[in-house]
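Please describe the entry underneath.
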Amino acid sequence: MFRNLGLFAADPCPDESCHRPNCLFLHGGPSRGSVPSSRNGVSSTKSASAAAHASGVSGIKRRAEVHAQDSMKRTKENGRALPTPASSTRQGAPSIPTNIKLSPQPWADRQKALQTLYTQFTKLYAQISTTHPDLASQSALSQESEISSSSPTLSAYKTAIHHSAVSISRRPPPDSVPHPSIGTVRESREAHLAAEKAAAGRLTRDKVSRYCLPLDDFVDWGYPDPKDQTLVQGGGEDPDGEGSTQTCDRCKVPFVVSSENLQARFGECRYHYGRTAPARVEGRRKWIYSCCGKERGEAGCEDGVHVFSHKEDGADAMLAKRQGFRTVNQVAEEVGSEKIARGAFVEVVGMDCEMIYTTAGLSLGRLTIIDEEGNTLLDEIVRQRVPVLDVNTRFSGLTKTELDGAVMELTAVRAAACMWIGPETIIAGHGLENDLRAMRLLHDKVIDTAILFPHDKGRPYRRALRDLVKEKLGYFIQDRTADFGHSSAEDAKATLEVLKWKVRDDAE
């Protein structure tokens, strides 16, 4: 049976002087047809038996070693180890791994298909082959493996290989890495779609200027009026609210502003930090706080000190007395910026501020500015000139230690912001009126996503940024506010991403 099938015909005979007339193994020496003489018949027979026994033992050992190696390989495969990497050189095509699992396609057909793909990838990557010599082999192997695993029959496999080769030959040659033309057909298609999506959503002044808030609506939406010249005249006459009577922002109780004995006074204000929302409890409609589940009107669940902000009529004039407003041009002139003459400013930026409470009211604690690609242009914590009442960590994400380590005061941070923000720069944000007011900056080109995506109930209601991001982009932000506060960089990026979605949606 073995002789007819030729199972060992390619293996060299283990016996150096084999005298078996019909040996199963390969022999490269002279003919074995001579028959030993009768005079040495007994000894020849014994030596032949010994040789056969040695040959059998040697063969068994060799097959045992091979079996052990195969067993180790199978163990690695069952343990999800990667298959043996295919050999590849710059002079020839790669080879299909020999230890891959069974597939509907014969190995010879797969190797031929791999050669076809490798030829097309080599032509495609001609400009980058010097710096990335193995890229054609890697792409060909990935493409072939992808087609093999998704083709149920040999005919479908060959058709898919042909279509892929044609598709690869029609790609624009890449001149750098990464590039949308690099990779398998699926990877290249996804990269091109991503590039087209990014280009369609790219934020330029021409694309987004139509979303800017009209100047006539600034006052209605609570923005500081850029046309009010009284806000830029002087400023700083009354920098502190010490000794004045204000109404607490949290518990709505009147109090006298003081920075003394803050630690001992902790607990003078009991309040709810959450918002109220309608809910039906025991068949009745009630307004429930999101922070503790209590009904509206019940005692607060959080302790703190009294804080305030200027929200009354004429609040901007009072803020100007604390510290004066400035336009972008004025800031640039004060710092002697040459960018105004050259117009070297960013076209569109995203901005977000984190607020804290001081004896001057609601004050700027942190300023973050990013460009439309998501790069951080400025991220600075503001050093306060007046005593701090509450760092507001739950919402600002800042700590007292971070504030104590701040270097730049408000005027310096504002000047740094105007190194990127010019007179024609469009600032995008969510609820920007408080940010501009805290910066004491007057600017007439703003996009407020809280206004761009109006609330169902209309003004003055506004949608939360996290709700817009969840609805339009499909992911969550501000998910751990109770522990770590907002991230100004995350909020600024999310605002620009929502604006990009708006640009793409309107273009369709």
In short: Residues 2-77 form one domain.
